[in-house]
């Protein structure tokens, strides 16, 4: 299955970084395309988007300063289908993307995404005090997968920190 295209640009307010695309995302070519994935609902409820976007509109979020990429580009059924070498390669590719595009905030959609990237065993939700790339604010957010057992309001509250930061700092 082909990789889905990143949505990257210079000057992004937030670059959202996922584990890897789902099979449905691979089929459609759009990020967070599984209808059970809450990504676009979370962004809207957290105040990050002015309206509820659909996965088919993912490229339109570039206009409001949001981009998309993944630590592993290959679509899979789940993260259990990703092997260690793919994470190692993806870590290097992701670091190069961050260095090239330098988003103001790199939002890791899932603790596991950030631990794979940073090689840190333990991380908390929110902004990381010691980012891997010091010039970029690194933010760890819950996965938006429908499989996550955290209450939706708690997830939205964590993402709302991003909206508040952007509003406060004019990002």
TrEMBL record:
The protein's name: Mismatch-specific DNA-glycosylase
Pfam family, one: UDG
CDD domains: UDG-F2_TDG_MUG
GO molecular function, one term: pyrimidine-specific mismatch base pair DNA N-glycosylase activity
Keywords assigned: DNA damage, DNA repair, Hydrolase
Gene Ontology annotations of biological process type: base-excision repair, AP site formation
InterPro entries: MUG/TDG, Uracil-DNA_glycosylase-like, Uracil-DNA_glycosylase-like_sf
Domain Uracil-DNA glycosylase-like, first and last residues per copy: 6-151
Record Gene3D superfamilies: Uracil-DNA glycosylase-like domain
């Amino acid at each position: 299955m082909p990789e889905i295209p990143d949505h990257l640009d210079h000057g992004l307010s937030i670059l959202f970084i996922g584990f890897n695309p789902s099979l449905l995302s691979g089929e459609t070519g759009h990020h967070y395309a599984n209808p059970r994935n809450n990504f676009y609902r979370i962004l809207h409820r957290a105040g990050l988007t002015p309206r509820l976007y659909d996965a088919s509109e993912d490229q339109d979020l570039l206009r409001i300063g949001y981009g998309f990429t993944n630590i592993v580009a290959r679509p899979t059924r789940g993260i259990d289908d990703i092997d260690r070498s793919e994470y190692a390669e993806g870590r290097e590719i992701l670091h190069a993307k961050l260095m090239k595009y330098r988003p103001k905030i790199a939002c890791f959609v899932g603790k596991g995404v950030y631990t794979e990237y940073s090689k840190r065993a333990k991380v908390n939700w929110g902004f990381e005090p010691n980012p891997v790339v010091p010039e970029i604010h690194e933010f760890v957010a819950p996965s938006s997968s429908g499989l996550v057992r955290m209450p939706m309001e708690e997830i939205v509250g964590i993402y709302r920190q991003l909206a508040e930061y952007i509003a406060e700092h004019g990002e």
